[in-house]
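stuck on this one:
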Amino acid sequence: MSSTKKTLVVFGGTGLQGGSVARYFLQLPNSPYRVRVVTRDPSSEKAQAIASQGAELVRGHLDDADSLASAVKGAHAVFLVTDFFTNVENPENEAAQGKRAVDAIAQSPTLEHFIWSCLPSAIEATKGKYDAIIHFDGKATVTDYIEKQHKDLWAKTTVLWVGPYMQLWLQMPQMFAPQKVVENGKETYVSLSNAGPEAVYPSVDVSRETGKTVHAILKKGRELAGKTVTLVGDLEQTRKQMLEIWGKIVGKDVEVRQRTDEETMQYLASLNFPEYLQRDITQVGPAFQEFPGLFLGKNAILASEILSEDEKLATWEDYVKSANWEPLLSL
């Protein structure tokens, strides 16, 4: 029976996005795919955990072209995601890694569908006003590379724009979560940002939603070739609304405060962020506030439109209720 299954190759299978994809297909009843996870270290605890669920592990590194060619051999579908934060010291390398993987994937004669998880071009979406958001634009250059340099592959490609992770409040609390402030004996969790309280943050529970969205894309097949799908759970939720929902559920007083761009840069410098990343993150909030349709693009299709009626995307409220906030509250 398994010999009739096609092969789905998942990059980043030990991370949030790729892990969601791998787990979804491993747990899917009568899945048409066997799952192959590409990992730098097959012996790692996370890799072994996904292997214990039935995934095939192959060693591969986005800096090693030969390992990538071996990893995608015989693939019928490929899910690719790159990680900006592992390239912080050399941000241009993320795009180079993406292009290197694309070159290998394009050579696979068995390939039927390629899903490239990335982000929209901030430069294009903001008409050049916000030009330092490298962690968006680096990925966007890979999309452009596929379309212009690998036209045959582009005819099999679906671009997946994944919105800001709801998990970021717990993953990177110093950057994204409200901070505990005690003033006159009163404890308040304060959200500090250079974006205003009405700035829209189209977030997504990436661990829960990526797998089922990839499944929906693969079921659509060539219908979504050359198209972009946007994966966000809450399209219109503001920074203030997110904070108020969180405060109500965890039982904490909350407050939104705004700081200047200069204060934001100074704070990021205190976290030892390189200067280019200080500029990058400082531009994100204002870009989201001024261009709330940043994740919609010209012709992007909402993931909710291709999912079945019983596969509703989680809201921020759903995520807050399900997450363990003790690590944040104990800081």
In short: The longest strand covers residues 186-193. The radius of gyration is 20 Å. The mean pLDDT is 96.
